[in-house]
Amino acid sequence: MARTPRTRRPSGPVVRKGTIRLHHDVARRIRAGHPWVFREAIGRTPKGRPGDPVDLVDWDGEFVGRGIADGDGPIAVRVVTRSRDERIGPDLFARRVQAAVDLRRRCFDFARVDALRLVNDDSDDLPGMVVERYGDYLVAYLFSEAALRWREPVYDALERELAPRGIYEQRRFRSLGGEAPRGPSELVRGAAAPVEVTVRENDLRFVVDVTAPLSTGLFPDLRLGREAVARWARGRRVLNLFSYTGAISVYAQHGGATEVVAVDVSAKAHARARRNFEVNGFDPEAPEHIAGDVFKVLARMADRGRQFDLVVLDPPAFGTGGKGRPFSAVRDYAELVTAALAVLAPGGVLVAASATRKLLPSDFETALGQGAHAAGRPLRIVERQDLPADFPRRPAFPEANYLKFAVALA
Question: What's this model's pTM, rounded to 2 decimal places?
Answer without folding.
Answer: 0.91
